Structure formats: structure tokens, C-alpha cells
From TrEMBL:
InterPro entries: PCMT, SAM-dependent_MTases_sf. It is an enzyme of class 2 (transferase). This is Protein-L-isoaspartate O-methyltransferase. It catalyses: [protein]-L-isoaspartate + S-adenosyl-L-methionine = [protein]-L-isoaspartate alpha-methyl ester + S-adenosyl-L-homocysteine. The active site is at 132. Catalyzes the methyl esterification of L-isoaspartyl residues in peptides and proteins that result from spontaneous decomposition of normal L-aspartyl and L-asparaginyl residues. It plays a role in the repair and/or degradation of damaged proteins. Gene3D superfamilies: Vaccinia Virus protein VP39 (3.40.50.150). HAMAP family: PIMT. Transmembrane segments: none annotated. It holds the Pfam family PCMT. It comes from Cupriavidus malaysiensis. Its EC number is 2.1.1.77. It is found in: Cytoplasm.
Length: 296
């Protein structure tokens, strides 16, 4: 993948990681994001991470410094352990592992579920939706980054299905710019609130129907869908840059009359070879919430 759009130098970091506190304390004094616009941007200056940083480096040091009390150390250890489990499970991209080790997943789930936040499991986030499994988040982002070194971020990335904002935060660590769309307004608002204390300057949240993409910000060097449709929406293929990659769960319907009529899903990797040609690779079976049109 040698497209220039996939290889800008743009050092990124979570400038600070704040442990979950009771709601008023957590947001007190934090910069407001988004305002009345439908797009929310968390934009506070971030210190750059040294290129080719490895787990256990600057991001984690700042996370610890910003965390009050032993909960911070416990969360840091849990994040590190999660990244180690994903490495043992086959994730090879050090930048992805660093990002998983840096993003405090417990801030993206209900406080009652925080003790499960560093297990490799999907968890409910309300509105019949889930926060994706860390191993699946890591796998999909690794596929988007295939061929890039740890010091080479993705370019402009579009995520469909912000949910609670966790994957968007992980993406913000491995890409120059991230745009994420959510169709359920309360989840869009929740994601804004979850991301505010993390001060992620290169992430923009949009409320809308992600099946339409975000033409005003296209083309994207990578597109990632966090919900499964029957097929990949045409608008998203059109908004993928030449040389770019799209990863999506899609439904696989077994042939009529065959045994077992259950609809399953598989990951589909699509590479745009030129204006008209796309190369598709079907990968492993997965389980995602459905991709739906319109907004609620
Ligand atoms: N990215 C999340 C996963 C959220 S679950 C994470 O970090 O774990 C998938 C999300 O996709 C749900 O919140 C669902 O509402 C959303 N979704 C489904 N169809 C959509 C569409 N057409 N546009 C935008 N979001 C959509």
C-alpha cells in the first residue's frame, strides 16, 4: 500500500488519560466539544508521541501521571495485559498493540461493567448495541494498516458505527485523522462525553447515517465498519481512495435449500486498485450488530 494518502507523518497521542470518576467530577473543567453542530470535535493540543513508540513508553507514562490513585495503575496493568494477550493471540502490528495498551476501555463502558472492561469480550452499551471485542478491533485495524511500520500512521480514516467511541479512540492512535459516524443520537452524545476527557485532537464525531459515508471529507485511505450489512454500501466504496482499504463485516446467506438457514457474517477486506477496480478478500467469521439505514 504505497498511496501517499496512507503515509503522512502525523505524530499522535492521547495527551492524558483520566480515570473514570463520578459523572460530575469526570467532566468538570473539561473543554466542551461539538456545541450545537452535528459534528463534534475533541480538539485540545496533544504532545506528540515519539515515532515507533512501543508499549510501555510515553503514552502509558502520561496515562499513569494523569491517573489519580491506585485505580490508574490497575487500569494501566490491565491494558498492558490485554495488549499482551492480543499479541499472544496473533496481533503483530506494534502500533495497534500500543494503541490498545493506551486507550482506557473502562471509560467507554457503564461503570458497573468496568471490572470486565479488559476482558476480550463485547459488552452492552445500551440501545441494543455493544462495544466491540478488543481482539476484533485490533484485527480489523491491523488489516487496514497492513504493510505500514509502527512509525507510519494511516491517513484519513472513516469509521461507521461510533457506538461508545472506543474503537474511534484506538483509531486516533494509529491514523492521522479519524471521522466516525453514529446513527443513534444518544450513543453519539455518549461517545462525545466518553472521549472528552481523553482530549483526542484528530477525531471528529458525526451524527448521521454512515451508509451514506461522509462525502465532504472523502476520499478516505481507510474505512472501517463496526456493524454488519448484507453488502458494503456503494457510497463507501466511492469514498475510498485509490490504494485505500475498507474492512467490514458482511452477512453470508447460505444457499437456499442447503442445511442450516442461519445467516452468518464474515469479515470482508476490500482494496481499491484503481478508479474502477476493487479487490475483495473474504476472511474469518465474525459477529456484529446490524448495519441499519437512517438515524434515530
Ligand atoms: N465502534 C464501536 C462499536 C459499536 S457497535 C466500538 O468501539 O466498540 C456498532 C454501532 O454501529 C452501533 O452503535 C450502531 O448504532 C451503529 N450503526 C449501525 N448502523 C449504522 C449506520 N448506518 N450509520 C452509523 N452507525 C451505525
Amino acid at each position: 500500500m504505497n498511496s501517499p494518502t496512507r503515509r503522512p507523518k502525523f505524530p499522535l497521542s492521547l495527551d492524558a488519560v483520566v480515570e473514570r470518576k463520578p459523572a460530575p467530577a469526570r467532566t468538570a473543567g473539561m473543554p466542551a466539544v461539538g456545541g450545537a453542530r452535528t459534528a463534534a470535535t475533541s480538539k485540545v493540543r496533544a504532545k506528540p508521541v515519539a515515532p515507533a513508540a512501543v508499549p510501555g513508553s510515553a503514552v502509558e507514562a502520561r496515562a499513569t501521571a494523569a491517573s489519580a490513585g491506585g485505580g490508574g495503575m490497575a487500569s494501566e496493568r490491565a491494558r498492558g495485559a490485554l495488549a499482551a494477550r492480543l499479541r499472544a493471540g496473533g496481533i503483530r502490528d506494534e502500533r495497534v498493540l500500543l494503541a490498545i495498551g493506551a486507550v482506557p476501555r473502562h471509560l467507554f463502558v457503564d461503570p458497573g461493567l468496568a471490572s470486565q472492561a479488559y476482558e476480550d469480550a463485547a459488552l452492552p452499551i445500551g440501545h441494543q448495541q455493544t462495544i466491540s471485542k478488543p481482539s476484533v478491533v485490533a484485527r480489523m485495524i491491523e488489516l487496514l494498516r497492513d504493510g505500514l511500520g509502527a512509525d507510519q500512521p494511516l491517513g484519513r480514516v472513516l469509521e461507521i458505527g461510533t457506538g461508545c467511541g472506543y474503537q474511534a479512540a484506538v483509531l486516533s492512535q494509529v491514523a492521522a485523522e479519524v471521522f466516525s459516524i453514529e446513527r443513534i443520537r444518544p450513543l453519539h452524545e455518549q461517545a462525545k462525553a466518553n472521549l472528552r476527557p481523553l482530549r483526542v485532537p484528530n477525531l471528529r464525531l458525526h451524527y448521521g447515517d454512515g451508509m451514506l459515508g461522509l462525502p465532504q471529507a472523502a476520499p478516505f485511505s481507510a474505512i472501517i465498519l463496526a456493524a454488519a450489512g448484507m453488502e458494503v454500501p456503494q457510497a463507501l466504496l466511492e469514498q475510498l481512495a485509490v490504494g485505500g482499504r475498507l474492512i467490514a463485516p458482511v452477512a453470508v446467506v447460505p444457499p437456499a435449500g442447503g442445511p442450516g438457514q442461519t445467516v452468518t457474517q464474515q469479515l470482508l477486506l476490500i482494496e481499491r486498485l484503481n478508479r474502477h477496480r476493487f479487490h475483495r478478500t473474504a476472511l474469518e467469521a465474525v459477529f456484529f450488530v446490524p448495519l441499519k439505514s437512517g438515524t434515530i
